[in-house]
Each structure stands twice: as structure tokens, then as C-alpha cells.
Amino acid sequence: MDLPASNLTTSSDLGPVILALPKGRILKELGPVLARAGITPAADCMNEDSRRLRFETTDPGLDVVRVRSFDVATFVAHGAAQIGVCGADVLMEFDYPEIYAPLDLGIGGCRISVAAPKGLAEEEDSSRWSRITVASKYPGIARKHYAQRGIQAEIVHLNGAMELAPALGLSKVIVDLVDTGSTLRANGLVETEVIAHVTSRLIVNRTALKTRPEEIAGWINRFRAALAA
Ligand code: PRP
């Protein structure tokens, strides 16, 4: 039996698809990708001085929210945003089963590395360590990295400025993102191990992919075409 039209849920009843974008350096690199995908958010979306957090686009079926990079994954995992852009570092840290990451956008290239004070890196043989203190905003990645080496890691969880930790006695080493290396150099640290290379991914909530398949697949295809362009 057919349901009356009023009982059918259509895409427009669900409101616009929400695309979560990360604040900061990735947002700048994303501008050209969005343009090639035909996504034009309100002008103040790309201006980080704007206090607005949600922005309409020229397509009534898509709104953009601008959040911290770690929070992009949280919004998408919980279905508050259906799609998003976030670094492979964040996906590695949380490993959310609800998130599907179909596309490497090839932007935001950097690495997650171990860094240590210059003197320590020269004087000590890290293969002889059995315990270590590590400051990081990636406790999961840091713990796993050292567990694989049979080293017991005590993690000091910081949200930023972890380059300060070794000199102030908070940790022996840090695990952090390295791009140009200038933050490490400016703080007397050297990169000692690369844990993983990182780029930004298009991510999708798996439930949204099932409940709004045409819309979500449509947006994935727009990003895919933008990469091919
Ligand atoms: C990241 C990272 C380093 C810095 C590395 O911080 O935590 O501090 O960039 O970049 P570099 O190798 O080019 O110096 P970010 O600027 O993303 O800010 P955050 O501390 O808020 O994460």
C-alpha cells in the first residue's frame, strides 16, 4: 500500500546537507577545491574574523559549518554534519566506525612525527628506552606508536603549544604535526621519527549515506570531479 504523500520523508524535509570544514590553514587550501566543486559559501565563511559559525551556500541544499579540525570528525561521526573535510591525523586518532572517508583531497600535506630536544636526540639511543613521557594532542596515536615498540608511554594530553613541554620538564618528547618544521626549530626541537604522512580527506557519515544516498553521493561526486579538474 502506498503511504500518503504527507508521510513520506523527502530530502528537502531533512533540511540542507551540512558540510563541516576545519578552521585554520586547511580552510585556505580548501577555497580552490570548493570552487572547482561548484560550492560557493557566503563570503564571510572564508574570513576567520567572522564570528558566524554556520553559512549558507548558493545551493539551498548545502550549508557549511566552520569548526576546529578535531571537531569536524565529531560532528560527522554523530551525524550533526553529513559530510566534512578533516585530516587523516584526526581519523587515525579517533578511528570512528561511523565515518567513511572516500576521497583523499591531496591538500593539507604534513606529517605526524616524534620530536625531541636537539641534545637528547643526539645523546640518547631511543631503542633502549623502556618508558617515556610524551606530550601530544594525539594520545591514541602516541600510545599506539610506542606500544608497537614495546615502550610504555605516559601521555600528557595537551591541546596546543606542546613544543614547550620538553624544555619545561613536562615530557621527554612530543608527538605533533610537522609541516614546514619552523615551529620545532623555533623551540629547539628536532624531528626524530615520522609516524605517518597526513593529507585531508572528504569524510561522510555512513548513516547519511544510506538515508540520503542521492544527495550524499552527489556531493562526493562533485568533490571527485573537482580533484580531476
Ligand atoms: C600545528 C602543529 C605545530 C605546527 C607545525 O599547529 O601543532 O605547532 O602546526 O607547523 P610547522 O611545521 O609549519 O611549523 P597549528 O598551527 O595547526 O595550530 P594548533 O596548535 O592550534 O593545532
CATH class of the largest domain: Alpha Beta
The fraction of residues in strands falls at: 25-35%
CA gyration radius, whole angstroms: 21 Å
Number of helices: 8
Poorly predicted parts: 3-7
CATH architecture of the largest domain: 3-Layer(aba) Sandwich
Average pLDDT, all residues: 93
Helical fraction equals: 25-40%
Order of helices and strands: EHEEHEHEEHEHEEHEEHH
Output the strand order for the largest sheet: 2-3-1-4-11-5
Task: Return the domain count.
Answer: 2
CATH topology of the largest domain: D-Maltodextrin-Binding Protein, domain 2
**Name given to the CATH homologous superfamily of the largest domain:** Periplasmic binding protein-like II
User: What summary fits the major beta sheet?
Assistant: 6 strands, mixed
Terminal Cα separation, in Å?
46 Å
Task: Give the overall shape, derived from the CA principal axes.
Answer: elongated
| Count of beta strands | 11
Give the topology, please.
Blueprint: E1 17-22, H1 25-36, E2 54-56, E3 62-67, H2 69-77, E4 83-87, H3 88-94, E5 99-104, E6 110-117, H4 118-123, E7 131-136, H5 139-148, E8 152-157, E9 173-178, H6 182-186, E10 189-198, E11 200-205, H7 206-211, H8 213-228
Parallel strand pairs: 1-3, 1-4, 7-8, 7-9
Antiparallel strand pairs: 2-3, 4-11, 5-11, 6-9, 6-10
The structure holds 1-O-pyrophosphono-5-O-phosphono-alpha-D-ribofuranose.
